[in-house]
Structure formats: structure tokens, C-alpha cells
Amino acid sequence: TLVYDVRGRVLHEFYRENRSPVPLNRIPRNLVNATLSTEDRNFYRHWGVDLWGVARAAATDVLHMRRTQGGSTITQQLARNLFLTHERTFTRKLKEVALAVELERNYTKDQILELYFNQIYFGEGAYGVEAAAKTYFGKPLQELTLPECALLAGIPANPSSYSPRRRAQAALLRRGKVLRNMLVTHAITQVEFDNAMHAPLGVTSVRYSNDRAPYFVEMVRLHLDEKYGSNAVYEGGLKVYTTLDMDMQQLAERSLEKQLESLENDMKLTQRRGTFAAAAAGPNGRTPYLQSALVAIDARTGYIRSLVGGRDWNHSNFNRATQAKRQPGSAFKPFVYAAAMDNGFKPTDIIVDEPVSFPGGNGETYSPQNYDHTYRGPVTLRYALQQSINVPAIKLLRKVGVSLVASYARRMGIKSPLGQNLSLALGSSEVTLLELTSAYGVFANRGIRNEPSFILKVEDRNGVVLERSTPRPFEVLSEGTAATMTSMLQSVMDHGTGYPARARGFTLPSAGKTGTMDNYMDAWFVGFTPSLVCGVWVGYDEKKVIGPGMTGARAALPIWTDFMIGATRGRPVEDFPVPAGTVGRLVC
After folding, report:
1. Residue 461: phi, psi to the nearest 5?
2. Residue of 37, 39, 148, 316 marked catalytic
3. Model pTM?
């Protein structure tokens, strides 16, 4: 099964055996010649069994008093790989000969050779020459050089003994033998032989992997497995077209890792990602080092363009973008203000920022405080949101009603349970990054919600469309309310807690909100342009303090900024649309 990104680039392959069949005419001539000269020089002349080859191998074995050569032709090797085991018994050898003769009667030499190249095992899970080229050299088959072809041709005789990564010297000697065979059979010239013998092995330091966007790919796999079954996923030859943009994904991963390494350096942390092996993850995939997640969604369609669920899939498969529920802090406040704006309040309304106490349960009182422990007296709602002041948000929630605010949040996309208390205004109810980011998309999309989606289309091996996803928009806020909220969140970016994004170089029209939980345990930033909404969370898997002063603006906003600068580079500048009949006024 092939999984593609939104631009048609292969994102991942699901398989039981890593095999990508290729026609014979696409296999480099050097690889064909290297294989024939080493494995079966009489391939085009025998009828499946090379009697002269068997006699020569037997004589060599007697001469060395041990088994040093096999007499199997390429057709016999193909028969063994397709139908038999590799046990060394006389019975198996007879079956192998009989099957080889039958193959020769039913297929042409070129067909047999093509089957062989696509069937043979090269080690490290690679079956066939195309998979082998990617596994060992990280490039397509057609780009292989002469020495690389010779190396591959020598591996199938014993993939374990001639592994170029684990036994480089043995692989080098084996390659030399193949090259000498090519020279003897006049497949290459003396000059080509000399140059190839001095070439390095050329094998990549790590095994080739097409596991891009692993957290996203796992979401795709789970969906396919649930809907079509694992056999269809691994053997069905499905084609899955996703919403992910590979360029944005790589940008997101780089931005996230760069910022977290910077934070680790600044805080002089001893527990860093680089110091932990894959086995270091604890129960449920939790890691001891600083983590983060990022989600970017097309605001107009709900399509997920990038998703990072953690710093290292090999360390932890826990998806922090979709599975981790954390308190969003002040990033929840826009839902309080949206409910207010939609029910008669205006950005210029005044609310008094002052010490307050509210009666709570069990005779206790609830006395919220501002982040900086200062109080500003009368402030506008726009200013209160811009500076993320706590007391006005709680007073506004009390005026609008907790249940009404919760209903607005749910309509906009928050699916996690929401507490029915005043601390809801300060983000005390846990949510996932995906649902919070998706909900902000309503502001960007003029009050219209699209359910986040990650699969565009699934086809079977014959091109029959099994499922297709299209946006299903529905209005959850009035266009005027969405525009008002966007304007207020623009003030956050231009003059408030989101201003560090401007100082860092992101100048495009944008809106957003920081979020910081008590004691700096969770840092958030969710922001958007007219077409792209992105959310970032930073924290530890275990709920503990990130570090002193690690607010959303300090820990999460730099990741968002770097990502958005790259994601919007080269694209036309977009302004937020103003609803028809709306007039802007500068208010003192």
C-alpha cells in the first residue's frame, strides 16, 4: 500500500516484505551483467540446469575438501525462493531442478531474469533490486553506479555474511570478486575495473527509511486497518492520498527540534533527547525529556497539512498532538470572548480588573490572580484579551455563563469534557492540541467549521475509489463575531503576548493566543493567517514544571513563528476579509 502526500509524493509504504517490482528494462545493465557473470554465466544457453556449472562446482568443492560453490542456476534460485525452503537435502534439490525446468518451459529467459531480480532477498528486509537500492544507497535503482551494482550483485549469495553495514570488509572482498567476474566475461573494461575497485562502498550510514511523518502515518494506518483490515493494508496494494504537505511537515519537525534544543541549552538540562536510547521511554510511551507537538491545518478545508506528535517516533509512539490531554491555560480564553461577542458584548466594553473572590464548594472561596499579580483597573475587553489578563476573563465568563461558553467551545470543535466552573476561563479543562487548533480555525474561516481530516482518497489496486473525503463546512459563529474575534486576536499578535512573533520576523497579517498553565507545566500558542491555522504545545509527558518563566510566548511561540515564516514564504500576502457592511473605527 502506497501513502502519498497532498502533492503526490510517496510518504510511506506498508508491506509485509519490502518489495517494489520493476521491469527488466529499468534494471541497470551493469547490475544485470554483474549478476549473470557471478551467478549464472550460461543463463541464456541452459534449459534451467547448467550441467557444466554443476560439474565445475563439484570439482572445486572436491579440490578444497569442503563446500565452496553452489551449482544452482538463476532459474533454480528463483524456483527455490518462490516455492521451496533453503534446507540442504537431496529431495529439495530434486524438486528445485524439476521446478526450474518447468519455469523454463513456461517463461522466456528475460521473464525469468525479471522475476529473479524482483524476488531475490538482499538482507535488511529488502526483497528485489529496487528495495535493495533504496535500503543500502538511499536512491532509486536507475542511479546506481558500477561499483554499487557489483556490491548488490554479490549480496544475495549470503546476505548476512556480505552485509555492507555489519561486515564492510567482507562486502568489499565480495564486490571485488564480482568485478573480476565482470572483467573476465568482458562486461567491463580494465579501466572501469580499476576505477570501481578503488571506489568506496557508498552505503548510507543508516538504513534507508521512507518513514516520513511517522505520527501522521500511524493515524493513517489505524484508519485503514479499522476500515479495511490489516491484510488490505499490507497486501492489498491500496493507494492512499492524504492531506499532508511534506514540505510543511519537514519544516515543522525542524522548527520544533531547533527550539527544544535551544530551551535545553538555556535551562542547562541534563535530560535531553540525544542522551536517551529508544528503550528509554516509560509506560505508555512517556519520555523523561522535554517534548512538543505541532498541528497545522488548512483553515478553509480542515485538511491537516502537518502533524508532529513528538520529538522521536523511535523513542515513543505516543502522539502528543492527538492523544495527550493537557490544560490549555489562557489559550482557552478566546471561547469565553467569542460567546460574549456573539451575545451582545463589544471589544470596547469596559470591565474592571481588580482582586476578586467567588464562593466555591465546601465553604471555600475561589480567588483568581493575574499572571503578573498586578491589577489595572478599568480595561476594555480587547485590551484584557490582548494582555491575557485573568480576572476580566473570569468576570466575563461569570456574566455570559459557564454552560453557554462550554457550548460555544463544543460547537467550535472542543470534544473533551469541560468543567462547569469559573476556572474554565483560565483553561483548567484538558484538551488535545488537534481539537484546540481545529477550533481556532473557525475564527480564521469566517465562523465556518470544518472537521479536521487527513485522507483525501483511497483506491484499491485496480484504481476503484473506496472512499473520498470532501470538506463539509457548517456555520458555528456569525461572520461578524468571527471577524471581531479575529481582530481582537490580531491585537494579541501586534501589541500583546504574541508580539514576540513580530520581533522574530513574522510580519504577515495574523492572529493568535498564548497559553501558560500554573507553574509553567504547559506552554501553548495557537495562531492563524486567513488560510492556515497552527497550534504548538511544549511540556513534559509527566506533568511537571518546564522551567522558570517558560510561558507560551517563551517556549511555544518561537516554534510557531519559525514554522509560519517558512510555510508562508513565497505566497501572496493575505488580509483577513471584513464582512460586508462592517465599518472599522479607531476607539480611544
Report:
1. -65, -20
2. 39
3. 0.76
